[in-house]
Amino acid sequence: MIRLAAIIAEFGADFVAQFRHRLSFDQLQALSAIEHCRSPASPMMQVHCSDCAHHHLVPHSCGHRLCPHCQHHESQQWLERQMQRLVPADYFLLTLTLPAEWRGLAAAHADVVFDFLMRCAWETVHRFSQNDRQLQGTPGAIAVLHTHSRRLDFHLHVHLVVPAAAVDEAKQRWRRKRRGKNGTYLFNEKAMAKVFRAKMLAAIEAAGIPLPARYPREWVAHCQSVGSGEKALICLGRYLYRGVIREEDILACENGRVSFRYRNAETGKSEKRSLTGAEFLWLILQHVLPKGFRRARNFGFLHANCKRLIALLHLLLKFDPSRFTPPRKQRPPMRCPCCGAVMAIVRTRIRSTSPGVIATTPVVAAAI
């Protein structure tokens, strides 16, 4: 398997020289973090064996959300939280896409446009739910922003996992869409695209950002039934914190070029793409999100502040979401190389201040 850190070490200098004028501080930080993840250059933690008293230093992971090695545990925790918020209703996966003509504007004003994209997507779902004759209330949604296509090109869109249900706060009623002969129908895709387009245009103009010279009048929206919702959440959670590419998909790094595989969405077949090392790194680094931006958000009655409401719904509707919760994967313990016993973390964030001298910061092991 070819590590992304090795590609950065080999082509990093050429990449910075070629794309310096397009790189932000956040992207340079991501480049450095991934290159030094779990390497001797990263901070260390000291582990100690209680059986044989052996101890040694282990490098920390970088924790960057674009790194393919980090935040697997956070991804699992997020998925468990979402599973506990499932309700007895038919679920739909809504996808709202920003046109290709907007990509330059989105890259130049990422923090603003990304936020507008998620907010306008939710406002569109909320408006349709309020106007729907069977719902007439506040819906719930789990939204995740994606910035890439399967080919790793910049392709901005937001996925929303939405139950076909709503809460009428005024009348304190719970309403669900009724199933017809062809299953449950949620919202019209073309109508959603029109409303989403209007909301995005209004938000961008209100922010004083000049619109693109040309963009299509018709935007794209998809509404797909996903059953009880757990499979859609598992799919979104799988790519939430693990970067945009798996290192297993990097096929070759030779002759100054990097090749990787991806699955063609139209044919379903695996295809290969090859670029120079610098171009490949730009393909990855262009998906660095603005610092502090939350790409996964909960809206409506699925918001984190609605825990009591969700618990009440589970009680009244006699619904137990625990059966959908995937089995927890425990972090594998670190074993002593001498006796094989489990080793405990006693110090973290150890940095070398000078040869032979080590500065330490003791913390609780569970905080890592």
What does this 3D model show about the protein?
Helix content is 31%, strand content 25%. The model is unreliable at 352-368 (pLDDT under 50). It has a domain at 72-244 and 287-324. A hairpin with a 5-residue loop joins strand 1 (44-49) and strand 2. The chain starts with a helix and ends in a 7-residue tail after the last strand. Helix 1 packs across helix 8 (277-285), helix 3 packs antiparallel against helix 7 (230-238) and helix 5 crosses helix 6. It is globular. Strands 8-3-5-4-12 form a 5-stranded antiparallel beta sheet, with helices on both faces. The protein has a 4-stranded antiparallel beta sheet with strand order 2-1-13-14, with no helix packed on it. It has 368 residues and is α+β, with helices and mostly antiparallel strands.
Features:
alpha+beta, 31% helix, 14 strands, globular, five-stranded antiparallel sheet, 368 residues
Brief synopsis:
With 368 residues, the chain is an alpha+beta fold. The protein has helices at 4-19, 25-35, 72-83, 103-108, 110-131, 189-206, 230-238, 277-285, 307-316; strands spanning 44-49, 55-59, 91-97, 140-148, 154-163, 165-168, 173-176, 220-225, 250-254, 257-263, 270-276, 296-300, 343-354, 357-361. The model is unreliable at 352-368 (pLDDT under 50).
